Amino acid sequence: MALVKYNDNSISAVTSTALAEGSLVPIKTLTASGSASLSFVDGSNDVVLDSTYPIYKFEFININGSVNASHFNFNFSTDGGSNYNVPKTSTYFNSSHNESDTSAVVSYNTGGDLANGTGDQNIYRGLGNASDEHLCGHSFLFNPSSSVFVKHFLNQVQNTGSSYSAHGFTAGYGNTTSPINAVIFKVNSGTFDGTIKLYGIKDS
E-strand spans in the chain? Predict the structure, then answer.
């Protein structure tokens, strides 16, 4: 059996891999069951969404809509969730491939972007509602407590629906220098099931 090495050292001699230990800190897990929305509000129900961490990560696990082809969305608040209406400018594209191998495309989706719009931002357009159709993925929110810069976000999800594998990409910024202290996730029609986890990422 070959000796496993890391940076030319045997594993027994390795004391550090130069990776930050415990850099991903679990904060809150919310579970939707026939829910219209899930909200993460700083200071509410043990949620931390402030200057404690420079980056926040949301993980989406088995998001399934009650209405076929509904859209999974998010929005930001600067007033603790009283209003979710931060202006956003964004981009949205996706790739897809079907089980019969008759369609494989990469396309920009003009219906999924915003141009300094205050409405809900699409994370993915076209959730399935069958028992085997669901979405998984993640979202990053960068430096939400800054009082100087706008707030960048980056989403990447994988969806199964209508015999397709679809990979969705959305990115953009919340056009505000006010701290973002709440995030809501919702569908545009009906309700949804699934789990969303919030993590803080420490400075390296």
Answer: 5-6, 9-10, 24-35, 37-41, 55-65, 70-77, 88-98, 104-108, 115-117, 121-127, 135-142, 151-161, 164-174, 182-187, 192-201
Residue 1 lies in a domain: no
Q: What is the CATH number of the domain that holds 193?
A: 2.60.120
Successive 10-residue mean pLDDT values, the chain, 204 residues: 49 49 90 98 98 98 96 98 98 97 97 98 95 96 98 97 93 98 98 98 85
Question: pLDDT value at position 162?
Answer: 84
Largest interatomic CA distance in the chain? 61
Contacts of 151 (CB under 8 A, 6+ apart): 76, 86, 141, 142, 143, 144, 173, 174, 176, 180
> b/e for 26-57, b at 16 or more Cβ within 10 A?
ebbebebeebebbbbbbeeeebbbeeebebbb
Please tell me the total count of domains within the chain. 1
Strands 151-161 and 88-98: unpaired
Q: What is 37-48 written as a DSSP string?
A: EEEEETTSTT--
6 within a domain of the structure (yes/no): no
